[in-house]
Design a protein that fits this description.
The chain is α/β, with parallel strands linked by helices. The protein folds into 2 domains: 214 residues, P-loop containing nucleotide triphosphate hydrolases (Rossmann fold), CATH 3.40.50.300; 267 residues, no CATH class. It is built from 20 helices and 8 strands. The strands form 2 sheets. It has a 5-stranded mixed β-sheet, sandwiched between helices. β7, α6 and β8 form a beta-alpha-beta unit. It is globular. It starts with 7 loop residues before the first helix and ends in a 5-residue tail after the last helix.
Length: 581
């Protein structure tokens, strides 16, 4: 991420040793997202946004490298008129082969403020963000500081910084800017010195070093410390976090096995026929108790929870409707906000005004979706508590993290990251539980719902048609300004109307999936419990027909398995605690 023209694309090209990989011409600005992932051969594929009305996604299109500028730059695709979602590039690169996926986002400042919706859409899913500054234009700006504050307060503090173009400045100059930037990042953004990873580098020197195989130039380029950081710290930290997530899942399975083996041992150990008969009687009684519990407690609890979730769903839909209402409070308040601008300012900043309003809508929607996800989780907890369900999940300490901020986003991503196909990645990302899907939807809906529309052009045309030119703007009457604001409000209201149905439908589908999953989760648990009870009863019956030697062999085998499980639990606990290695 970073401001426009800071050298993001050149930095990535040099990092991967592909100088021509992403468009970098000085008169070309990146207008969409590029995703780079490992593949056995180089491919370029265009992925399109769904239709805002029907929600139908257009199929991706494979293109040549020369065609990228037609879809991924401001010159070739102004205002994203071709409705590009992102451009996927597969590349047989060793760095990407490790599982690293690089996302190059458009510039976030200046006249390209409209690109922020794209940037925010990908920020929540990032395990790390490399923010690009340079050594030529200026030290870190107020816009960049504001953006970073938003980023660290809303999503993550796992930020890493590169300062490009050190070859274009004297050593004294770029080192002075580095010192100044780091000081600002500490004092203004709140990034502690011990957690501030900062790399000054030169893409030009790196490309020259690759071409001539010159180690001295490579050292001067500054890329060696960055690559060491990626390969030696960041990627291993991600792998370690994934391993901890897997361990926690294994931990739950191991506890269940331990309980199962203990139950079998109770029956298998030398027991008299009288004791076995008593065990069989007790287990039959347990089955009867369970069946009664299922009828008297489980079904009423699920019915109550489903009803409660339906009420939360209706409340959320009402709030969504309020946000997207063309005559709603959000739009009225925003119109009042822009009344302080002059007619000339409104005309000149039409696209920025639209983007700012859409960002406000996105923030308001995110609050609604996050709240529903929290309510869904709370309903699940309440049902479990009401039913006195003990899932026997052991306690574990949160994994130690080499960086500040939330843990890596690893849930159900192992298969997704290993795929080389962007089509498979997109499909895989839609899997997982309903709650996880809705949580992801909650943080990305604003961008999905508010792709760059034709509103930029409409607003600008309205202003141009009314005012005619700069001189007319300066002498415009108050009534003409009011008319311009009314037209602006009409256009924004039309956009809300256009996307309202799509947003509501997407939310409602996800909420319905949550409701269905609630039933499935607890009914599946009940079904499994019933199967376990039936199995235990069968074991008790079978134990009575075993010879003494057969019983002893069964006991030995179960004790052996129990020791293995207990050892595994001890190792998992050691790995998932902060002291674990």
């Amino acid at each position: 991420m970073g401001e426009i023209k800071k050298g993001k694309s050149s930095f990535i090209n040099a990092l991967l040793g592909e100088p021509e990989l992403l468009p970098t011409s000085s008169d070309i600005a990146t207008s969409t997202v590029f995703k780079l992932i490992y593949g056995p051969e180089k491919k370029h594929k265009i992925f399109f946004l769904p239709d805002p009305e029907s929600g139908v996604a257009f199929p991706p299109k494979e293109v040549s490298a020369d065609e990228l500028v037609q879809y991924g730059t401001e010159n070739g695709n102004p205002g994203n008129e071709k409705r590009v979602d992102f451009i996927g590039i597969e590349l047989p690169n060793p760095l990407l082969e490790s599982g690293l996926v690089i996302v190059d986002t458009p510039g976030v400042g200046g006249l390209f403020k409209a690109h922020r919706d794209i940037t925010w859409r990908f920020a929540p899913n990032a395990d790390g963000i490399i923010f690009v500054l340079d050594s030529v234009e200026s030290v870190i700006s107020a816009d960049e500081i504001g953006f970073l504050k938003d980023l660290t307060s809303k999503y993550t503090k796992r930020l890493f910084f590169v300062q490009t173009k050190i070859d274009n400045a004297s050593t004294e100059l770029w080192q002075g800017w580095q010192s100044r930037n780091k000081s600002i990042l500490e004092t203004e953004v709140g990034l502690g010195a011990s957690k501030l990873f900062y790399f000054p580098l030169s893409a030009k020197l790196k490309n020259a070093a690759d071409k001539s195989n010159n180690l001295k130039r490579l050292q001067r380029s500054g890329y060696l410390p960055l690559v060491h950081f990626l390969q030696g710290k960041l990627i291993p930290a991600k792998e370690d976090e994934i391993a901890k997530v897997v361990c926690r899942k294994l931990q739950t399975i191991a506890v269940k096995l331990r309980t199962e083996f203990a139950s079998k041992l109770l029956v298998a150990r030398d027991s008299t026929s009288t004791e076995l008969a008593q065990i069989e009687t007790e287990r039959r009684a347990k089955i009867s108790e369970f069946q009664e519990w299922e009828q008297r407690q489980l079904q009423p609890a699920l019915a109550s929870a489903t009803s409660l979730l339906a009420r939360h769903r209706r409340d959320a839909l009402d709030r969504i409707d309020e946000v997207l209402n063309p005559n709603g409070q959000l739009l009225l308040e925003y119109v009042d906000h822009i009344k302080q601008l002059t007619g000339k300012e409104i005309h000149a900043q039409a696209s920025v005004i639209q983007q700012d309003f859409m960002e406000r809508c996105g923030v308001a929607l995110k609050i609604v979706f996050d709240n529903f996800v929290a309510q869904y989780s709370e309903v699940c907890k309440e049902v479990a508590l009401k039913l006195s369900i003990d899932n026997e999940t052991p306690e574990y300490s949160s994994a130690s993290d080499a960086f500040e901020g939330p843990v890596f986003r690893t849930a159900d991503e192992l298969d997704v990251v290993s795929m080389t196909s962007f089509d498979a990645m997109r499909t895989g990302s839609l899997g997982g539980s309903a709650a996880a899907g809705l949580a992801t939807f909650a943080i990305s809906i604003a961008s999905l719902a508010f792709p760059p529309l034709t509103g930029f052009t409409i607003i600008a045309a309205l202003g141009a048609g009314m005012w005619g030119g700069s001189k007319a703007l300066e002498s415009a009457k108050k009534q003409e300004k009011i008319q311009l604001i009314n037209n602006l409000r009409m256009v924004l209201g039309q956009q809300l109307s256009q996307i309202r149905r799509s947003v509501i439908r997407r939310f409602d589908d996800s909420a319905e999936e949550c409701s269905s999953s609630l039933q499935v989760i607890f009914e599946s648990a009940a079904k499994q419990t019933k199967a376990d009870l039936d199995r235990h009863l069968a074991e008790a019956k079978a134990a009575g027909s075993r010879t003494k030697d057969e019983a002893k062999a069964v006991v030995n085998e179960l004790e052996k398995k129990s020791r293995v499980v207990q050892s595994a639990l001890a190792r998992i606990k050691a790995y998932t605690t902060p002291q674990g290695s």
